[in-house]
Design goal:
With about 425 residues, the chain is an alpha+beta fold. The chain has three domains: about 160 residues, Nucleotidyltransferase, domain 5 (2-Layer Sandwich), CATH 3.30.420.40; about 80 residues, Dna Ligase, domain 1; about 160 residues, Nucleotidyltransferase, domain 5 (2-Layer Sandwich), CATH 3.30.420.40. About 35% of the residues lie in helices and about 30% in strands. It contains twelve helices and 20 strands. Strand 12 and strand 13 form a beta hairpin. Helix 8 packs parallel to helix 10. It is globular and about 85 Å long. The protein binds adenosine-5'-triphosphate and magnesium ion (MG). Adenosine-5'-triphosphate binds next to helix 6, helix 7 and helix 9.
């Protein structure tokens, strides 16, 4: 099995392309990585196709040069807050005389589950089987080859705004890339920063990027809730810029070099110099002063997420704790301590464990690859591991993200 999978993460601050290979030893290898700053994406959404395409092209070229190969297909992300998940049910009579369920039956039951009335500006992105029921016996993950008369499927239908979908896909198409699937970020990120046990028992994953803070609760290995706060790393930089009256670029630089997210960890004595706009002299500020600004904004994001969890009675579901990821939170010393104080739950930082992408900004990019492997081939990779394992079922269930996406997508053309 020599398989190459490419992902394109469309982020508010950067586009990232990752080319991966499953080698002969069933290890996932990252063979190419490229990133490019992007001006065409605001709050995770493509607002300028030309500019986004250019960033995709540069990021891909870097990744292709590193991998020494050309790619033409990729999986692309869509921010979680812009998608909605609807649980629906499909029922069919098994067709064959021997009543053995084949891939056509599975496709038929999934298609019947996908019939629902939707607002005109929304479109189906994906259909994810949650469980199959054969003649009343539930919790079946893969019915292929089993015998029964009536086949039911409970599915999660992922829908998203048509404009958002079209613009993301068009940006990739402009540079000759075919989009094999659009993957909502919570599904992607969870695959790269958490393991199955955590998702089974209950985990909260918070991905704070540049423009959006996505959060999702997983329980019984399924997405139970996901939300989005439209405040993230850029707002922290902006606050520093306004608070100290310095340029955005200088704020970004000092945030990265000296930023601490939890004031008890910052020093009153350690001083740094900044260049306020319109003043000739440099100004001295303490590490603690800088930290106060960062803590206030990050704390606000955590508080907003916490309130939404309480309002929806979700805190009791989070048995294993919180995983923080994304560039807006993953680098700061003290972000764990701040989150622990606000949520009163165990916290850890999540990032990919692969050399070259061992950073919280790559969680979505790697996650897109992991998730597509899981859906496309029924393979999975544990967090902290690079071995590609086969799921319990040895057969291909027809539950293939590519075929569904293609089918849905073909309706547009
Ligand atoms: N070393 C660092 N210290 C602090 N913050 C950092 C550091 N490096 C990057 N960041 C911040 O990370 C943010 C970008 O993170 P990320 O790449 O995860 O976001 P994105 O995917 O582009 O955006 P989004 O997910 O919101 O669409 C920026 O706000 C940037 O300032
Ligand atoms: Mg992101």
């Amino acid at each position: 099995m020599d398989e190459f999978i490419t992902s394109i993460d469309l982020g508010t601050s950067k586009v990232c392309a990752i080319i991966s290979e499953i080698d002969k030893n069933r290890q996932l290898q990252i063979v190419g990585v490229g990133t490019c700053p992007c001006e065409g994406i605001k709050k995770g959404i493509v607002v300028d196709i030309d500019s986004t395409s250019k960033s995709i092209l540069y990021a891909l070229e870097q990744a292709e040069n590193m991998a020494n190969m050309e790619v033409s297909t990729a999986y692309v992300n869509i921010p979680g807050g812009y998608t909605k998940i609807i649980r629906n049910k499909g029922i069919i009579a098994v067709s064959g005389e021997d009543k053995e369920i084949d891939s056509e039956d599975i496709e038929r039951v999934l298609n019947s589950a996908a019939i629902l009335s939707m607002p005109q500006d929304q479109h189906i992105i994906d259909i994810i089987p949650a469980q199959y029921i054969i003649d009343g016996y539930d919790e079946i993950r893969d019915p292929l080859g089993m015998v029964g008369i009536r086949l039911e499927a409970d599915v999660d239908i992922v829908i998203g705004s048509t404009t958002t979908i079209l613009n993301a896909v068009k940006s990739a198409n402009e540079v000759g890339m075919e989009v094999l699937g659009l993957i909502p970020e919570p599904f992607a990120v969870s695959e790269s920063v958490s393991n199955k046990d955590e998702r089974e028992l209950g985990v909260l994953i918070i991905d704070i990027g540049a423009g959006t803070s996505d959060f999702s609760v997983f329980k019984k290995d399924q997405l139970k809730y996901n939300g989005l706060v439209p405040i993230a790393g850029n707002h922290i930089t902006n606050d520093i810029s306004v608070g100290l009256r310095i340029s955005f670029d200088e704020s970004e630089e000092i945030k990265r070099k000296f930023g601490i997210a939890y004031t008890p960890l910052a020093s009153d004595e350690k001083m740094l110099k900044v260049n306020p706009i319109g003043i000739d002299q440099k100004l001295s500020i303490s590490e603690a002063q800088l930290s106060t600004i960062i803590e206030a904004r990050l704390g606000e994001i955590f508080e907003m997420i916490n309130e939404e969890l309480i309002k929806n009675d979700l805190k009791k579901e989070i048995l294993t704790g919180i995983v923080l990821t994304g560039g807006g939170v993953g680098y700061f010393p003290g972000s764990k301590e701040l989150a622990k104080e606000i949520f009163n739950l165990p916290v850890r930082i999540g990032k990919p464990k692969f050399i070259g992408i061992d950073d919280p900004i790559y969680s979505t990019g790697l996650g897109l690859i992991n998730y597509s492997l899981k859906r496309k081939f029924n393979y999975y990779i544990e967090h902290n591991d690079s071995e590609v394992k086969k799921s319990n079922s040895s057969k291909k269930s027809g539950n293939n993200i590519t075929s569904f996406f293609k089918k849905i997508w073909d309706e547009y053309f």
